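Exercise: predict the structure of this protein bound to 5'-deoxyadenosine.
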Amino acid sequence: MHLPDLEIAKKREKSENKYVNLQENYQKVFNGKKYFLRTYGCQMNVHDSEAIRSYVETLGFIKTENIEEANLVVLNTCAIRENAKDKVMGFLGKCQYLKKNNPDFKIVLAGCMTEQPDVIEEIMQKHKYVDIVIGTHNLYELPKLLMQEYNKQVIEVYSQSDEVIEGMHFNRDSQYTAWVNIMYGCDKFCTYCIVPYTRGRERSRKLEDVVKEVEDLKAKGYKEVTLLGQNVNAYGRDIGEKFSHLLECVAKTKIERVRFVTSHPWNFTDEMIDVVAKYDNIMPYIHLPLQSGSNNILKRMNRRYTKEEYYALFKKMKEKIPNVAITTDIIVGFPGESDEDFNDTLEMVKKCAFDGAYTFIFSKREGTPAARMEDKTPMKVKEERLYKLNELVNYYSNQSNQKILNKVVPVLILGVSEKDENKLYGYTDTMKLVNVVGPKEIIGQIADVKIMEAKSFSLDGEYVKVAC
Ligand code: 5AD
Ligand code: SF4
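Solution:
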């Protein structure tokens, strides 16, 4: 069987008609086949999976949640910590078993793991049954590779081309909130982190392209966009732009809610704080990873700030942005972290009283500078530190939630709660999860909700009225 290449993203704008014809041809081949997609890791991966869905559904594949009936499995992997890799390897075993009984069953490995040379080596040696390995930079080649793959049995490895691809299509998970990439990659090289190696150098999308995407989403009825980058404050350095300017232009589209993740404390400028404070539709919520409260460890992490500088920025944000919620990421057990260093972290958590925090035990990533640092702390001690840290972090997130008990707050209602079909769920402007008693008609709207109960990780509330 021979069909011409489907150059799905790059050339689509130039020849929309040709694309439609090709699409019909492909649909004849794949129609009715089912795909199973599993996503590991961060928001960037979740958003990449929306592109993967668009590609395979355009080809004619239909989504299934039951892997047993799938013809195609796509694993969108994460490399940030070792346990993410372990989960993928475990799942691959199951796929191998299914493939034995079904020769038509194809396995695609995508995402950050595929950008690690040692992992590729392992796949080539021990997991030869994997059909396609595709990197994070060229997902748009997936339809072409699938087409080739259904004709032959070779592992294809496609990787690393540092381009910004425009014209991508996404089958988005939500009708109301959307991720919007503003840049790719990271140049910060924190010593523990694999991201600069898996996602490559910082590349920014053009300001006009981002704004146009937000305008299109608004026209389609989306209420909220989250601007995505590994470090959004680095946006524009490669193209003579600034994140504060982009943020302002996005706010001016008048879409109801604008968010952004993730921010690095190192170059979070006063201009950025001013823009967040100035526009009502930029949500008062900032995720500002601290990583450690010890200056010694911050230096070894190559974080480029001291705890004093972090706190000065934190205070400025709290002073200038009314009701801002600030959450963070913290790593315990970084190589060389002493009891004293860990206590410094606890002290910073007390001082900042974070609205929430994601906490991790350091995971050694091959190829990063921290992997070569001496690490004498036993795992048991690291686990005890994590436990202690979590207790403190949970105390403050509970305190933060208690502050809005009995208050009426705006909540973007996203759907029916998975845990209780009689309740809806949504998020406050400060990114707190609320389970809401209310009519289904308010799904997709920003509603005033009275908070009736506050727990550590969520709130319960009752619908009052649609917010004006
Ligand atoms: N070990 C543990 N946590 C890590 N993170 C990144 N790399 C590692 C690692 N090697 C954490 C950081 C980052 C978050 C997304 O994951 O806290 O902010
Ligand atoms: Fe990793 Fe640091 Fe870049 Fe964040 S800023 S992605 S932690 S290297």
